[in-house]
Amino acid sequence: MPFTANRQFKGQPRLLTQAKGMYYTSHDGRRILDGTSGLWCVNAGHGREEIVQAIARQAAELDYAPSFQIGHPDSFRAASAVAEIMPAGLDRIFFTNSGSESVDTALKIALAYHRARGEGQRTRLIGRERGYHGVGFGGISVGGISPNRKAFSGALLPSVDHLPHTHDLAHNANSRGQPEWGAHLADELERLVALHDASTIAAVIVEPMAGSTGVLIPPKGYLERLRAITEKYGILLIFDEVICAYGRLGAPTAAARLSVTPDIITMAKGISNAAVPAGAVAVKRAIHDTIVDATASGIEFFHGYTYSGHPLATAAILATLDIYKREQLFKRAADLSAAFEQAAHQLEDAPHVVDVRNLGLVAGIELQPREGAPGARASEAFRHCFDKGVMVRYTGDTLAISPPLIIEEGQIAEIFDTIRQALLAIQ
Ligand code: PMP
C-alpha cells in the first residue's frame, strides 16, 4: 500500500466502505467525520449527486477519446472553466491525472519554455527543504522530504537546489494566519543565483502553503520576495497548489489568497472533488505562446498522458466547479476560517502541543515528539481519533486538519474536541 506500514496495517486494517457529505462509513459500520477531505481533496463533501450523475452520463455517452491528435469538446470546456478560477493571465491549461503528473508536467514546461526562447542552458531547478511535490522523479528531486528521496538518491535529477524551509518554532509558534517572521529566508534565492548564475536557472517551485510536510504557512512577505527575485532574473515561479487550489485557503487559489501571482500553477485533488483522478497545470499565456510559436509545424510539446483530459475526469471537473460556484464554497471557507482558527488554537494548552498554525480551512497541531520515537505520538492520536469517529491526518509529529468546505461550525468543534480527548488519552 502507498506510504503505509503494510505489516502493521495487516494486523489492524482500517477500511472505508461508504461516504456521504461530511461522513465516511467504516467497514465495521461506524460513522467517521471527515476532518481531512479524504487526502485534502474532497472539498465539496462526499457523494455529490451532480458529480455522480455527470460521470454516469459521460460514461454512457463517450467513455474515452484518444488525447493525442484527437480530443473531445468537454476537455476544452473544462479547460476554460479551470482558467476562469486561476489568476488572470494563467489561462492555458494542460490536463494530467494526479498531482505528481502535474508537477513533472510543470517542470517540463519550464524547460521547454526556456529552450523555445533560445535559453536552453537554463535547466537548474530550485525546490525547498520539506517541500512535497509528489512522487515522480522530478517531484522527489525538487521535493525536500528526506525519506522520500533517500531510497532513490542515486537516481534523482541533477542540478537541483533547495531553499531553506520556513518553519521556526522559536519565532513563530502559535501564529494565527501568516507568521510575522521569516520573509528574509527568500533571500537565499539570491545566494543560489550568485552561486550558479541566473542564466542556468529555469524555475523555482514551492507549495505556497506546504501541506504534506506538516502545514507550513508562508511568513508574511516571503512569497512576495520570491516573486520579486525570480522576476528580476527571468526565473519562472511555480506554485504547487495541489492542496491549496479550490478553496482550501478561503480563496480560489493560494495565489489569489496571498496576492502573489506565479507563472505556473499545478493542481489536482479539489479540481474533480477526487471523484475521478484528475490534475492540471495552468500557465501564463506568454509561456504557452512561446512554446507553440517556436515550432513552425508539427508537435510543439513532446509530453502527454493517455488519460489527459479523460472524459470522465472532465465531466467530474465541470460538475465540481459548478458546485463550487453555485454554493460559493470558497467564500464559505473564508467565512468559516475565523471560527476554525479559534477552535484550533484552543488546543494550544492541550498536552504535548508545541504549536498550532492555520490558514483558511487548514490547521497543523504539532506535538512534542516522544523521546526515541518520532511520529509515535501523532500516529497514536490519529488512531485514537479514528476510533472515536473523527478522521485526522498525521505527518511526522504534526496532526493536519483540512475538512471539506461544507463543514458546519458544530463539526469543527467536534474535530478539535476529539483531538483534545486523544491528546489527554495518550502518553
Ligand atoms: N504536490 C503537492 C503539494 C501535494 O500535496 C501532493 C499530494 N499530497 C502532490 C503534489 C502529489 O499528488 P498525487 O498524490 O495526486 O500525485
Automatic annotation (TrEMBL):
The Swiss-Prot or TrEMBL record describes its family as follows: Belongs to the class-III pyridoxal-phosphate-dependent aminotransferase family.
Protein name (record): Aspartate aminotransferase family protein
Q: Give EC number(s), comma-separated.
A: 2.6.1.18
One example GO MF annotation: beta-alanine:pyruvate transaminase activity
* Family matches, as CDD domains: OAT_like (cd00610)
- Source domain of life is Bacteria
* Record's keyword annotation contains Transferase: yes
| Entry cofactors | pyridoxal 5'-phosphate
What keywords tag this UniProt record? Aminotransferase, Pyridoxal phosphate, Transferase
Species, as recorded: Candidimonas nitroreducens
> What InterPro entries has UniProt attached to this entry?
Aminotrans_3, Aminotrans_3_PPA_site, PyrdxlP-dep_Trfase, PyrdxlP-dep_Trfase_major, PyrdxlP-dep_Trfase_small
Q: Which Gene3D superfamilies match?
A: Aspartate Aminotransferase, domain 1, Type I PLP-dependent aspartate aminotransferase-like (Major domain)
Q: What is the lineage of its organism?
A: Bacteria, Pseudomonadati, Pseudomonadota, Betaproteobacteria, Burkholderiales
